[in-house]
Design goal:
It contains eleven helices and 14 strands. With about 325 residues, it is an alpha/beta fold. The strands form three sheets. The protein has a six-stranded mixed β-sheet with strand order 6-7-8-3-9-10, sandwiched between helices. The chain has a four-stranded antiparallel β-sheet with strand order 2-1-4-5, covered by helices on one side. A four-stranded antiparallel β-sheet has the order 12-13-11-14. Strand 12 and strand 13 form a beta hairpin. Helix 5 packs parallel to helix 6. The longest helix has 14 residues. The C terminus is likely disordered. Bound molecules: adenosine-5'-triphosphate. Adenosine-5'-triphosphate (ATP) binds next to strand 2 and helix 1.
């Protein structure tokens, strides 16, 4: 559905995006996660054709966004970080205007509007001026305008920003519902949002992709924990020398046991059986051998702090 390839973009001296590539498959719901300034909005503006990349390409359903911007835009619905709503217009008048601007024919207008209004639960607010609505309700109007032309791809820039907890839950429910019909890419800096909504997460930091994986893959990308009943002086060096090992962290436990956290070079190539064989070969007294699950929070913290030239995950 969406293919972003080697996209870079500077604002003067500031490198906002540095060789960013990722894809979003049909029907997926993907979160673009990163702290403020990570480059999410710049990426989204380029994907939606509102900003040109310096280099690289964006293709939506085989249509090049840079070369055929209008055609590509007709396939997508876009909720910007601050949607340009007209406070004096009623919800009905605004959505009608947006539907007409998107070229929906008179014949289809009623049905498209009714569907967008139903999906965003705005039925009881159609006559109200947008300026009189709460922030949460205005976000729903923003969503309604983004889906009124039944886009195949829905792109939401920080859809929950500024909402209260109840409105955030409501927004998540809405996004889930919309994802049944459209592919969804949304940006956020809120971890729980990704956990609640996503099939996959793309983590950005300093304008670069730091990880592109399912939540399960990210959690599994932790190390393997090997605990020995007592100190084996040569164990650390042997573990460090095993093929496929990136790093070994040693912790002495109060009862004399020693725990090694062994991180694989490739997150999808766990080391459990290699460690088991190694311990058996050397006759080490194994107390425990298990995969360490990581929380998305710790992965995010690690990756957000990673240096620009560190390896990326998955
Ligand atoms: P936020 O959530 O705060 O919007 P973001 O992840 O969306 O953050 P971007 O807004 O894409 O990040 O910004 C990426 C980098 O580019 C930041 O360093 C930002 O200061 C810079 N930047 C963004 N827009 C401009 C601009 N118009 N002119 C100069 N620098 C910019």
């Amino acid at each position: 559905m969406l293919c972003v390839q080697h996209v870079s973009r500077r604002y003067g001296e500031v490198v906002a995006l540095d060789d960013v590539s990722f894809t979003v498959g049909d029907g997926q719901i993907v979160g673009l996660l990163g702290h403020n300034g990570a480059g999410k909005t710049t990426a989204i503006k380029i994907i939606t054709g509102y900003l040109q990349p310096d280099t690289g390409s964006v293709v939506i359903n085989d249509i090049d966004v840079v070369r055929n911007t209008r055609e590509a835009q007709s396939l997508l619905g876009y909720l910007p970080e601050s949607a340009p709503l007209y406070p004096e217009l009623s919800v009905q008048a605004y959505l009608t205007m947006m539907a007409e601007l998107r070229g929906i024919s008179r014949d289809d207008l009623g049905e498209c509007l009714a569907e967008a209004v139903w999906d965003t639960a705005l039925q009881d607010h159609l006559a109200r001026p947008i300026g009189h609505l709460s922030k949460g309700m205005r976000q729903r109007v923003g969503l309604a305008q983004a889906i009124v032309h039944r886009p195949k791809l829905l792109i939401l820039d920080e859809p929950s920003i500024g909402l209260d907890p109840t409105q955030i839950i409501e927004m998540r429910r809405l996004i889930k519902r919309l994802a049944q019909r459209s592919t969804v890419l949304f940006s956020t800096h809120i971890l729980s949002e990704v956990e609640a909504l996503c099939d996959r997460v793309v983590i950005m930091a300093n304008g670069r992709i730091r990880a592109d994986a399912t939540l399960d893959e990210l959690a599994a990308a932790g190390g393997t924990l090997l605990t020995l009943e007592h100190e084996i002086p040569e164990a650390l060096a042997i573990l460090q020398g095993l093929p496929g090992v990136a790093d070994v962290d040693r912790t002495a436990l109060p009862d004399g046991a020693v725990a090694f956290t062994v991180t694989p070079l490739k997150p999808d190539e766990p080391l459990g059986s290699a460690l088991f064989r190694c311990a058996a070969t050397h006759g080490w007294p194994v107390r425990e051998l298990r995969r360490e699950a990581r929380s998305l929070e710790s992965v995010f913290a690690e990756l957000s702090m990673a240096r620009p030239d560190d390896e990326e995950v998955a």
